[in-house]
Amino acid sequence: MDNINQLRDSLKESKDMMMENIDLILDRGEKLHRLEDKAYELNRHANTFRINASRFKRKPICNNMYLFIAMLFLIILVILILILLNL
């Protein structure tokens, strides 16, 4: 009878340990799923940031180019006026 009780206790202990392991595995799966969702969102935000950064980087170059063209136009205009006045 004592061996049967020891066997039952051992089985119960094994069962409890297995239930705890299953719970831990399920918790780990949930954590991995949440981590995967966060990684996806982070990747999406990183791509958006990259696109916006490249647009922002190009914008000052375009503004400087327009300013350069306007200054060049004014310089050419002043030179033409000076040439016409000297004739």
Summarize the structure.
The chain is an all-alpha fold. It has one helix spanning 2-86.
Portion in helices: over 70%
The main pleated sheet reads as: none
Percent strand? under 5%
| SSE succession | H
C-alpha end-to-end distance:
129 Å
How many beta-strand elements?
A: 0
Count of helical segments? 1
Q: What global shape is seen?
A: rod-shaped
Structural class: mainly alpha
Low-confidence stretches: none
- Based on CA atoms alone, the radius of gyration comes out at 38 Å
Mean pLDDT: 89
How would you characterize the overall build of this protein?
The chain has 87 residues and is an all-alpha fold. Helices cover 98% and strands 0% of the residues. It is built from 1 helix and no strands. The mean pLDDT is 89.
Task: Name the features.
single chain; 87 residues; mainly alpha; 1 helix; 98% helix; rod-shaped
List the helices and strands and how they pair.
Elements: H1 2-86
